[in-house]
Fold:
Amino acid sequence: MKILKDRIIKDGIIIDNRVIKVDSFVNHQVDTALMNKMANEIINRFKDNKIDKVLTIEASGIAFAYAIASLLNVNLVFAKKEKTSNIGNDDVYSAKVFSFTHNNENTIVVNKKYLKNNENILIVDDFLANGEALKGLISLVEQANANVIGCGIIIEKGFQDGGRFLRNKGYHIESLAIIKNIKDNQITFE
Amino acid sequence: MKILKDRIIKDGIIIDNRVIKVDSFVNHQVDTALMNKMANEIINRFKDNKIDKVLTIEASGIAFAYAIASLLNVNLVFAKKEKTSNIGNDDVYSAKVFSFTHNNENTIVVNKKYLKNNENILIVDDFLANGEALKGLISLVEQANANVIGCGIIIEKGFQDGGRFLRNKGYHIESLAIIKNIKDNQITFE
Structure:
């Protein structure tokens, strides 16, 4: 999506060869006009699918997921991160998610009331890198015997393994900008 | 706001005399149609004010804040919670926020780039009880020498002190439902 790639080049802050910060328009300050355009683009890419609900994970996926769910006029559900493992809590679906960014493991949970058998779920997040968060969210949907329609992502780091792994598993992944590499302070898109 | 009060009575889950859960439509699953109606109502209540930006705190305020900011076509900023105190980090405004719900203290931060001198800021959150989160957010805005236009809240617990304290200080607080008390499994609104 050209408008997003241009914005990443203009306002993204390259930290190193693997990390780029987009907190001026995606995940700390949020440019709502851009976000709504990106939401429409994701909806267009999944236009052949019936979507009953949008699922994301707190906190930085919520704005994007809200924009999509609102335009589709469906409910949004955001999985919560918990420090304590929720094993033994029968009220929730849970999955473990390792964060390479923070070098820690979270348990993410969704109350069983909010993911139902046979619902068509679009999963959404701001970043896709190693795919740990998406794998956790997919697990929650599949525990509920609901259907993963696909995953809508703002920025995918194509040089990390998550996208390839999930596409090889057959999941429909749509990323609005895929970064091929970051070298010598330059971003190249696929 | 009648539609919200009706929904709280229909779907809110009373935990005890002080706690009501609305996670089926506000802060775990989000009813986007209701959220957009509530966002329009908040905008209407602040219609005499110029609003440059909407500020909230992760995670459960983000959907409501996004709905309002998107309708106003302005940016949203969400303050982040940090475990470590950010004293000595010159890049951020920070404030300490005690959570009575979780019985812990968080430091909330906003990068100084995203709150600017003289900007008109509408602060938004899902709940107002003791007012700790709002006091922290107000502090961030005032550290930036920006202007607190007011605070837009979904549910205020009128039986706790936050709303009274902040109104006495002269802040313009608008809450879409103010709970007077919860007794014998019955909610009474002001």
User: Anything to note?
Assistant: The first helix of chain B runs from residue 2 to 11. The first strand of chain B starts at residue 13 and ends at 14. The CA atoms of residues 122 and 149 of chain B lie 5 Å apart.
